[in-house]
Design a protein that fits this description.
This protein is α/β, with parallel strands linked by helices. It has 22 helices and twelve strands.
Length: about 450
């Protein structure tokens, strides 16, 4: 156990520089220590992520201790995830006295931002939300693993039966309550080795993210754009709902992310995906599609506050300044993507954030500056396909209420009377969309 605490300390030393994302640091450290078994890795990772979730509170508790400051954090993480009875015997007398002192502190004696380990920049932005303490506590709870079936290749009930009989049984698979394609698993299975994954029958995707596809509502034969496609998770579901017909552009500024998506497209059996690496939101490749797409999804770069259950380091790596920069970028991306929407077409703006600046404020700013669009109530769109009840007009999910990551979406429709605006946009463009060459080959079934 003394060795385990030292391992946790070593990883934390690297993570707390905030130079790289925590999952990248942990993965790199494990690769550098290949002799560690599955249980060893699990204990180290769980303790490190526990510290990241509760860092502000643990740091306050550590002030009363002695010795190396990061080791004191490692001890608290180990006590929380491995257990006091295993950790206490390997501590020296001073450390034991400190741990026992910390155990006597009533959490309710601490202020809410310290008790729930929220940085000030984040707490002031959520403090007036309903049931703020439940929300803050939920952001510190580890998330279950959500997967979904590929609608082109699998049926959810049949997949549930298959997983229950086979490799997923110890992960207690259950249907997600809202998404018609989702399955929730316990633990962290090595799913990339499952035959269902290798054959493109299932993919990892949070239930909230799956529901965005219902808001986009793509139809067969349409032109659809996933404007910030990333590694392609949402693209895959949109393509499957289109039954691999029409044309589905996957835009992203990172060619590396699109390259990582390529094997996923191949496994899925989709042949209608056109991955396009763009330099920025106003790339000529974007302008060439002005007024052409029936559906455009903008899953915008954001603070990621809604994903803190999975990425707790984000609350320490983000700041008020980075949030300001992100909101400016979001507004530019949304305005550029809107140009691609055909008259009568649908534009969906989404984030994995719960912050009004990135969500409602962006939607209101967009409408004020784009009178050719109108806001569509998301509630009836979802009601037709899912039992989820939302107030509307926006789509909003919270982990404490819905058991998903925090999500937001606004649905806009371009007025058919805005043809003149579209014509003006198209006039400055050059080749037809058919001449838009993908940055990578289209995946074939």
């Amino acid at each position: 156990m003394a060795i385990r605490i030292e391992q946790i300390r070593q990883v934390l030393e690297e993570v707390l520089t905030w130079e790289f994302a925590a999952d990248s640091v942990v993965s790199h450290w494990f690769r550098a220590h290949p002799s560690l078994g599955i249980r060893d890795r699990g204990e180290v990772a769980e303790a490190v992520y526990d510290v990241l979730r509760h860092l502000r509170r643990y740091r306050q508790m550590a002030e009363s201790g002695v010795g190396n400051a990061v080791k004191r954090l490692a001890i608290q993480g180990a006590v929380s995830t491995i257990g006091l009875e295993r950790v206490l015997p390997v501590l020296d007398q001073g450390e034991q006295a400190w741990v026992e002192h910390v155990a006597q502190i009533d959490p309710l004696s601490l202020s809410l931002p310290i008790r729930t380990s929220l940085p000030d920049w984040l707490f002031i932005r959520i403090q007036d939300m309903p049931d703020v303490e439940a929300l803050a506590q939920s952001l510190n709870e580890p998330a279950a693993l959500d997967i979904r079936v590929n609608p082109m290749k699998a049926d959810r009930d049949e997949m549930l039966a298959d997983l229950t009989r086979g490799n997923g049984v110890r992960h207690a698979p259950v249907a997600t309550p809202y998404s018609p394609w989702g399955i929730r698993l316990r633990g962290r299975p090595a799913m990339n080795k499952w035959h269902q994954f290798e054959h493109g029958l299932i993919e990892v995707q949070d239930e909230g993210s799956q529901l965005l596809a219902l808001l986009v509502g793509p139809k067969r034969g349409e032109m659809v754009i996933d404007f910030c496609a990333g590694a392609g998770g949402k693209t895959l579901l949109l393509g499957a709902l289109m039954r691999s017909t029409g044309r589905l552009y996957a835009f992203d500024v990172s060619a590396a992310r699109l390259a990582r998506a390529k094997p996923r497209f191949a496994r899925s059996g989709l042949s209608n995906v056109v991955p396009v690496a763009i330099e920025h939101e106003n790339d000529v490749r974007v302008r060439r599609l002005a007024g052409k797409a029936q559906r455009v999804l903008v899953d915008a770069p954001c603070s990621g506050v809604g994903t803190l259950r999975r990425n707790p380091d984000l609350k320490w790596r983000q700041s008020a300044q980075s949030l300001y920069e992100l909101t400016a970028l979001q507004a530019r991306i949304l305005a550029s993507a809107a140009r691609c929407v055909a008259p009568g077409g649908r534009l969906v703006y989404a984030t994995c954030s719960i912050l009004p600046e990135e969500n409602e404020a962006q939607a209101e700013y967009f409408l004020a500056n784009h009178p050719e669009f109108e806001l569509i109530d998301a509630a009836p769109i979802l009601a037709a396909r899912t039992p989820l009840q939302i107030e509307g007009p926006y789509f909003k999910l919270r982990p404490d209420v819905h058991g998903t990551d925090g999500f937001f979406a606004a649905v806009f429709e371009r007025r058919k009377a805005s043809v003149a605006k579209v014509v003006a946009d198209v006039a400055q463009d050059e080749p037809a969309p058919e001449q838009l060459a993908p940055s990578e080959p289209v995946a074939q079934a």
